[in-house]
Amino acid sequence: MRIQEADFDVGAELTALRAGDARVGALASFVGLVRDSNDGAGVAKMTLEHYPGMTEKALDAIVAEAKGRWNIYAALVIHRVGPLRPCDQIVLVAVTSAHRGEAFAACEFIMDYLKTRAPFWKREVRSDGARWVDARETDDAAAARWEG
Amino acid sequence: MSVRILYFASLREALGVPGETVDLPPGVVTVGGLRDWLAGQGRARLASARNLRCAVNQDMAGSDTAVRDGDEVAFFPPVTGG
User: Fold this and answer.
1) Do B81 and A50 touch (CB under 8 A)?
2) Which of A41, A85, B2, B79 is most buried when burial is the number of CB atoms within 10 A of its CB?
3) Which residue of A has its CA nearest to B7?
4) Fold of A2-144
């Protein structure tokens, strides 16, 4: 798990995650990107703030929970902070397992929990001014699917 | 009892400070009590902000979570990463 300002190379990260592990039959990944619009307004740039210390703790707990729920081998989360622009990569989640079902599910679970439990905040500079992004109820609903 | 308070994102911006160390009076022993007390100390935004979240020692916490001497208590809006 890494929190960093720098961009990341998806191909290199995925190759490294599964390197030398012949048990792996599936590698599922998700890349989150900065869009150029949100709620109908153009987005020129954004800044991602986080809570150093808690971010790492929260992501570690989410990955540990995924490993408890599914039979997966390795899981990687890279999340960028600081200034970002449209088309930039924000986050990479990748999971290896023997079969695709567990890799897909664990990858989606980690992403859904990250969206609602990891302390990151986006501040957008849009055509109608700068604003902190509001949390979405759809993200809460997505995370709630994994409970109960 | 002394606790370290941290504010993030829109809440930090509204309050104009990233955090503060406060000495709590006897009787302020929970997150909810701390929030009410801070609101009465000029941090009114803590009372008016909707859906405010809290963490104690970097774990998500609720209003009833205990606050102890030396704790790090953070208040922030719902998270929007990913």
Assistant:
1) yes
2) B79
3) A51
4) Aldehyde Oxidoreductase; domain 3 (3.90.1170)
